[in-house]
């Protein structure tokens, strides 16, 4: 095994974690939660999404969240931005990093953003250009890399093509997503190896969902190839609104526990992360069973 000595964990719970919840978390609770995450030592927190409230009402308070949180100087506060109108709102509240998103499968992209992949790329190009001109970094999410709920297995060539185009547009980092949690360690090795044949490892992060309990194993597979950046969500929050049956993200506290036991540095305080998980569980009923297990062990 050839694991990196340090891993960067990118906390996506406040956005990817909450976007699929039926219960609306109060604004004050979101702000307090994000402040707890900042105090835990995360260098990166995705705090919300500037998607139209009609599509994701759970995140309709994105501007208020961005205005209300306490910002640590060593933390990047990012948000998902679907289009130029969303970018305008994000710039108004001085988001540090703009996140754009696209699916590797045509059908999922149509379901997710009601546009073809080609049309979505045109939107992303304009958003990336304007974000860069406003001195904001841009991160790109590529969904359904390891499988699509509508089309099945995704073509690696399609993924490579999207990665190349996004990087050419000025996207600085790519988050490679197992949106529905179908990946296994051998598939992760195959896809990651293909990506590393063309792109530097520091341009790549992995985003695993834990639908079938394979997320941690998939992290180890990617780490063994030198990948050192991973997305996760406190409490394993999350899911995909357009992928029936897809469950939450890899739980941040589970990832931290594993890395800590392995001697891999993260600079994150796991006790404070557990406290943040317990806090948000008061507002998100789906976390109850996870938290009972966590607090009793």
What does this structure look like?
The chain has helices spanning 13-17, 27-39, 62-68, 84-92, 106-113, 117-133, 156-168, 185-196, 215-223, 252-262, 270-281, 288-295, and strands at 8-11, 44-49, 76-80, 97-103, 137-143, 173-178, 204-208, 229-232. The protein has 297 residues and is of the alpha/beta class. The chain has a single domain (8-295), classed as Aldolase class I (TIM Barrel), CATH 3.20.20. It has an 8-stranded parallel β-sheet. Helix 10 runs antiparallel to helix 11. It starts with 7 loop residues before the first strand and ends with a helix. The mean pLDDT is 93. This is Hydroxymethylglutaryl-CoA lyase. One of its GO terms (molecular function) is lyase activity. Keywords: Lyase, Metal-binding. It comes from Oceanobacillus kapialis. Belongs to the HMG-CoA lyase family.
């Amino acid at each position: 095994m050839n694991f990196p000595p340090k891993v960067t964990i990118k906390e996506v719970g406040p956005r990817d974690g909450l976007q699929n919840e039926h219960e609306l978390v109060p604004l004050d609770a979101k702000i307090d939660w994000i402040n707890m995450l900042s105090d835990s030592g995360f260098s990166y927190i995705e705090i919300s999404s500037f998607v139209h409230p009609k599509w994701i009402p759970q995140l309709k308070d994105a501007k208020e969240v961005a205005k209300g949180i306490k910002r640590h100087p060593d933390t990047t506060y990012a948000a998902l931005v679907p289009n130029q109108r969303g970018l305008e709102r994000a710039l108004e509240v001085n988001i540090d990093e703009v996140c754009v998103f696209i699916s590797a499968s045509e059908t999922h992209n149509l379901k997710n953003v009601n546009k073809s992949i080609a049309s979505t790329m045109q939107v992303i190009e304009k958003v990336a250009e304007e974000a860069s001109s406003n001195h904001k970094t841009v991160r790109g999410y590529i969904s359904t890399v390891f499988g699509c709920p509508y089309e099945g297995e995704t073509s690696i060539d399609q993924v490579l093509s999207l990665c190349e185009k996004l990087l050419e547009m000025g996207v600085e980092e790519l988050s490679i997503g197992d949106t529905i949690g179908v990946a296994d360690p051998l598939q992760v090795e195959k896809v990651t190896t293909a990506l590393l044949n063309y792109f530097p490892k520091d341009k790549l992060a992995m985003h695993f969902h834990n639908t079938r309990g394979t997320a941690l194993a998939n992290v180890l597979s990617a780490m063994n190839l030198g990948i050192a950046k991973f997305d996760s969500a406190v409490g394993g929050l999350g899911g995909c609104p357009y992928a029936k049956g897809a469950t939450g993200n890899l739980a941040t506290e589970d990832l931290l526990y594993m890395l800590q036991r392995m001697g891999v540095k993260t600079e994150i305080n796991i006790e404070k992360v557990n406290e943040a998980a317990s806090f948000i569980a008061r507002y998100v009923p789906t976390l109850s069973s996870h938290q009972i297990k966590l607090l009793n062990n």
